[in-house]
Amino acid sequence: MKIKPQALPLVGLSIAAMVAMPATVNAASSSAKTKPHSSHSSSAKSSNSTTPTQSTAQPAYAPVRTNPAPVAAAPAAPVERSYTIGEVISESVTGDVYADPSRWEALTFRQLFTKGWDKPWVSPPTGGGGAPRMGWLNAYDGVFYRLSLGIFSWAHGPGSYSDSYAGTLTSYTPLSERFQIRTDIGLASNRDQTNFADFIITPRILLSESKEQTQSLDIAFRTPTGNSSNGQGYASINPTYNFWTNYWKGLVVRGGAGFTIPYAGEIARAGARSTFNANLAAGWYFTDHDAAPFGDLVIYVANNLTQAIDNRGPNSTTTFTMGPGFRDHLGGNWYLLGAVDIAVTNPKPYDYQVTGAIMKVY
Predict the structure, then answer these.
(1) In the chain, at which end, N or C, are there fewer CB atoms within 10 A of the end residue's CB?
(2) How many CA atoms lie within 13 A of 216 on its CB side?
(3) CB burial readout 144-167, b (16+ within 10 A) else e
(4) What's the count of helices (H) and strands (E) in the chain, helices before strands?
């Protein structure tokens, strides 16, 4: 058969299409098999298609902050000041120990040899019930103070014994949080003689102190500067444990126990005995400090026991006295104190004794 020249182009095109068709199908089939594993096809589709893909969807979790906000650093603990021995003593004796109550710190018995010796004394706060830490006549101290007081007492002699009187200047001088010195300088009169009394110096050690209680150890050293006719003129040592407590409102309970041991001087002529001593006192504060001339008014009862423990006299000698007392803030840190002590056992050192004092806190 004779093919027309015009048909040749069409025949060529048909043959070319038939030859190319299997290659195209195979290419499509190969592409379909490898597409799920081809990162290139996924990228191409992502860049050329308008359909949302996984790379443009919202994440299911919060994004990680690459630059987190800075965390505020904890405030640095205050640096405690170091004091020289001279500074500790000077600030305890002359510094303003009442201006900043926050300087006070609690001291425990376990810290007795490690804390408080190298820091100036600061006046302690009121007790757990709100009562002030103060001294009373005829009661043991317990607490540290910085003050001086003039004391005068008059005793009515028992039976045929004449009356007697005594005057004493007592000062409390703190030297650190743990240590202070008490001094007693006095005059004594018995019958018709008036002489200096024995000078007494008492180192005091603070055993522990919290808001509710204070404990101290006093070791009094008596020097024979007085006259035996007044019951003076002998040397002795007097270790005494003291405590002070205020746990509830205006109620204060204080006291302690100790020993008096004469060891030199005119012991026999003065009638001095080795004794066991104990004290217990309780009182209630009625007014605030600023209610002068009746500020810090406290009414209390003090009880004192003295039991002879040597062979210089009757072994059964026991002296027990008790009586009321008060303390009152007049204003300007001046105080008025008073007490009555009544002997209730025999033999009696006196029938009763009346004591008054004027005091200055500084």
Answers:
(1) N
(2) 26
(3) bbbbbbebebebeeeeeeeebebe
(4) 4, 13
Q: Which of 243, 113, 122, 262 is nearest to 180 (CA)?
A: 122
What is residue 307's three-state secondary structure?
Answer: strand
What single-letter DSSP state applies at residue 2? P
Domain spans of the chain, in order of start? 85-361
Distance CA 306, CA 280 (A): 12
Separation of alpha carbons 186 and 195, rounded Å: 9
Could you please report the per-residue DSSP string of 107-134? Answer: B-GGGTTTSSTTS--------TTS----
Both structure tokens of 272: 């001095």
Q: Which amino acid is at 146?
A: R
The CATH number given to 85-361 is 2.40.160.40
**Amino acid sitting at position 302:** A
pLDDT in tens, 116-163: 999 999 999 999 999 999 999 999 999 999 999 999 999 998 866 789
Is residue 138 within 8 Å of 339, Cβ to Cβ? yes
Phi, psi angle pair for 251, to nearest 5°? -85, 125
**Are 189 and 171 spatial neighbours (Cβ–Cβ below 8 Å)?**
no
Task: Give residue-wise pLDDT tens across range 165-196.
Answer: 999 999 999 999 999 999 999 998 876 688 89
**What is the spatial distance between Cα 209 and Cα 67, in angstroms, rounded to a whole number?**
51
